Amino acid sequence: MLNHQQLKAVNFSLQPLYLNAGAGTGKTTTLLSRFHFLSKQISIKNILILTFNKNAVNNLKKRLKEKDAKIMTFHGFALMVLKQNLAYLKDFHFKNFRLIDEIEIHEIIRNLLNQFQIKIICGLDNIISSISKIKRKIITKINPFFQKFFHSYNQILCEKELMDFDDLIVYTYYLFQNHYFLLNDYQQKFPYLLVDEAQDIDYYQMEILKMLGTKSLLFMVGDEHQNIYSFRGTKNIYSQHLKETFQMNELKLTYNYRSSSNIVKTANHLLPLSYQLKPTLKTIGKVIYQPCWDETQEALFLVKEIKELIESKKYQLNDIVILYRKKALKKVLEQFLNKNNIPFKVPKKIVYVPTNIKLSKEIEKKLKILNKKFNIKRETIIKNHLTLTSIHQMKGLESKIVFLIGCEQETFFDTFLGYSSLEEEKRLMYVAITRARELLYITHTLYRNLYAYHQKMNPLCFLKEMNLI
User: Fold this and answer.
1) Which of 178, 232, 259, 444 has the highest Cβ tally under 10 A?
2) Does 21 carry a binding-site annotation?
3) pTM beyond 0.85
4) Do residues 153 and 221 share a domain?
């Protein structure tokens, strides 16, 4: 059953609409219901849903259950456009192309570093990140020496007929800009365009939507209070620009179906009055605030609470997520989880599972063979584990129990941006809190060893704003 806010959005007249959907307010349900509403008027093949990652695409496909539905990431859409129009890639000196993989990028960067006789201390990933930021117009002032490096990188990609992820979006933008009839083809093919997580669009994605939107009808779902990817070039001004360009109508979703009332109440302290969430669950839930002396005491507190939660038989390890703002915070935690035989996983890493969990001899034997050949470890097949991840990686997900650690000024705020990032860090805090469904633990330390320094810490300013201190 849809609530009155959702129904109004689903049945809205055929005009451009921006739906401000707060955390846990059923935006996906509303988006898919809008799809069904439109599908009664046009073939589902002519409705395009754009979102930002493969997990979101898979989730939408699973829930929609329409095999002909066009649900893609922005990059997937761009890849389709380029592959369908190879003849026009001559504009960029390509006859054909394939996507470059991470190993190839690293190899090209290493060769260029040798060619330019550069010794680096920042790591290859930082260089790749800088190249990406230049392509997406996040960095506009470029060191002349790095400009040559950047040009050489692009030249190698062109010679090898390779494209990286950023190229997909940028080249699609230029194709649409330079070939109006191509743009017109996709406008006619997709007269209805649904955009999920609209607050996360960057400059080129905004421009592509602006071009498509001159004829395609835009239905955008977003939450400006969950815009946390400025380092990727996403800004609220881009979705705001689209609202103004197309004079979009605006509606809100404010009924939260995810979190218990105490968690919603805590999150509301970080929102303007006009965007306050309304809890719908009968469960009250708990928000537990725990100051600690240092990271050791913090880790001991977490281990103690986790053991008690599991012993209560109400929860499993799979119900627990530990969130951090910076990767440096997880090192001590990993040590204590290992020491206490608590299985955990870190996204994009092999999980740790204590060696005292026994597998059958046959499985162990096969795993040894697989490990030699493919470097597959026994831990990857253990399913019951907690998750240790960053707030950014947890975006769009939820968990029954969330431990949010390291809530200190010195830890939470970006070292280089300082307090200029206040609003984004507040949004990050809001995202972290609203991942929790039943229990939310918030910790901070008075002292912490961070980046090889023993530092005195101050409680995060938002803790006072949330009436926790």
Assistant:
1) 259
2) yes
3) yes
4) no
